[in-house]
Amino acid sequence: MNRRTIVLLVSTLTALGFAAAAFFYLQFSSTPQAQVPTIAPQNSSLVRFHSPVIGPANAPVTIVEFFDPSCEACRAFYPLVKQILEENPKDVRLVLRYVLFHEGSETASRILETARKQGIYEQVLEAILIAQPQWHDDPQVAKAWEAAEAAGLDVAKAKAEMMGADINATLEKDSLDTQANGVRQTPTFFVNGKALVSFGPQQLINLVKAEVALSKQP
What we know:
The chain has helices at about 5-15, 15-30, 70-85, 105-115, 120-130, 130-135, 140-150, 155-160, 165-180, 200-215; strands at about 40, 50-55, 60-65, 90-100, 190, 195. By secondary structure, the chain is an alpha+beta fold. The protein has a six-stranded mixed beta sheet, with helices on both faces. Strand 5 (about 190) and strand 6 form a beta hairpin. The N and C termini lie far apart (about 40 Å).
């Protein structure tokens, strides 16, 4: 089964879940919960201090996702990754690394980083992924900005900060680490430093389960 077939399958299997997420976003985006992702410890080229983290900082299992916000496959896998985190609230965390392979990816990544500064990273991440089909071919990513604003982003402040030295450094370091880890397509996953060699949803679930089980052994 090739990568495109897997992505189409994942998209089909998660369509209902993402529709529910879209409904939740539309209903509640006006009152986002401020929560800045924790900062990952610097222990390898997979995880850096600047990396956004979703989940507990001390979780024994770390999923690192090299992620392009304009990538349709990343959008398709988002509900699955979210489900894994929800099913393992104390044991698994997600570290996101930005990959700029597609048109609009850089601006979308900068939107996400400004959202992190404003404490609404997860809300904006979900919002722009839901809206992705409307903006991923648009170099100005207008619909991504609209979705981010609906999720609570102060757009004027974001546009003033998006070209800041700190965000530039984050994207530059992620680009170097993308190359260093041989990432050529997105999403690319590592779980506790182990590459997901065979790409697919069940393979990711199985690898996470195995690492969670290992972490609970005496």
